[in-house]
Amino acid sequence: MKAVIQRVTQASVTINGVVKSAITSGLLILLGIEDADKEEDIEWLSLKIVNLRIFNDANKVMNLSLKDTGGDIILVSQFTLHASTKKGNRPSYLKASKAETAVPMYKKMITQLENDLGKTIQSGEFGADMKINLLNDGPVTILMDSKNKE
């Protein structure tokens, strides 16, 4: 499971001209799911995300987590995070899970984040043509991969 975690001062997801989700201070997370992902990947990634100390404290030091700040999350499924560009110029998405596997995992991730954060999170819509608007704060962008826990 791969995630691109972006600290934002605002973010929104628009589908067919209608805003589906919007937050102010918090995280916009792009999530890529592959067939090898399990419950353990969801649990590990969720705990890392909500406890990641990437928000400024009173001394302007990144020392606070999303839990500390009370910030929000928008979680967006993004299969292109599993693109392989090894051959040619057209990316291959063979590692990305198909909907029958990815949708239940995406829903479990939403539930896990809500449980770990202690509040409802916002989301995109799996498989929809989404327009993402964000104001990256910092900018702070973190890449995480549950198969490469660095």
TL;DR of this structure?
With 150 residues, the protein is α/β, with parallel strands linked by helices. It has helices at residues 39-51, 66-69, 99-117; strands at 2-15, 18-23, 26-32, 55-56, 62-64, 72-77, 122-123, 130-145.
Q: Give the overall shape.
A: globular
Number of structurally distinct domains = 1
H/E element order: EEEHEEHEHEE
Would you identify the CATH H-level superfamily? Answer: D-tyrosyl-tRNA(Tyr) deacylase
Count of discrete alpha- or pi-helical segments spanning 4 or more residues? 3
What is the helical fraction, as a range of percent? 10-25%
What is the CATH class?
A: Alpha Beta
CATH architecture heading? 3-Layer(bba) Sandwich
The CATH topology corresponds to D-tyrosyl-trna(Tyr) Deacylase, Chain: A
Major β-sheet profile = 6 strands, mixed
Quickly list its features:
D-tyrosyl-trna(Tyr) Deacylase, Chain: A, two-stranded antiparallel sheet, alpha/beta, 150 residues
Walk me through the structure:
With 150 residues, the chain is an alpha/beta fold. The chain has a single domain, classed as D-tyrosyl-tRNA(Tyr) deacylase (D-tyrosyl-trna(Tyr) Deacylase, Chain: A). Helix content is 24%, strand content 37%. The protein has three helices and eight strands, in the order βββαββαβαββ. Strands 1, 2, 3, 6, 7 and 8 form a six-stranded mixed beta sheet that branches. Helix 1 packs across helix 3. The mean pLDDT is 95.
